[in-house]
Amino acid sequence: MIMNPAQLEWFKQAWPGPLVRSTSWFFSFGEILHFIGLCLLLGSLLVIDLRLMGFFKKLSVRSVLSFLPYTLFGFLLNAVSGWIFFTSNPASYIENPAFLLKMGLIALAGVNALAFTLLEHRRMLLIGPGEDTPALSKALAASSLLLWFGVLLLGRWLPIFTVGTN
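^ DUF6644 domain-containing protein, sequence as received from the core. Prediction below:
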């Protein structure tokens, strides 16, 4: 077990955990938020990463990077709704191998995004329509898509590997 019982109880009592468990609609509301966030996150990343990988060369990289605020907003919606899910029953998540791997992939996706921001973002703003991106940008974009679609797949696997329901 990664957390001791006192830590799990703290998360279980953290807001909005008690509200989620005492209402019939709050968890479903979280699922709606999660779906919207997922659409924004993956939809915008798909356009950005595919352009960085060399597709849609008629578009400037600067124009597709303008989708980044939607990516960030989608991520924030997923973080908030993920917190709703986690506080509803932390034990069932913390003991779930799909959840643990999903969190690991999200952390790696964050490192990947940081690497892109620090190493490539400024250079990418100068790439116009028809121009190709460097190998590092292509590799970071491909990694981004693989990581985020891995997160999506693991999210679908969460119910399969759920161990506890207390």
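Residues 79 and 146 are 19 Å apart (CA to CA).
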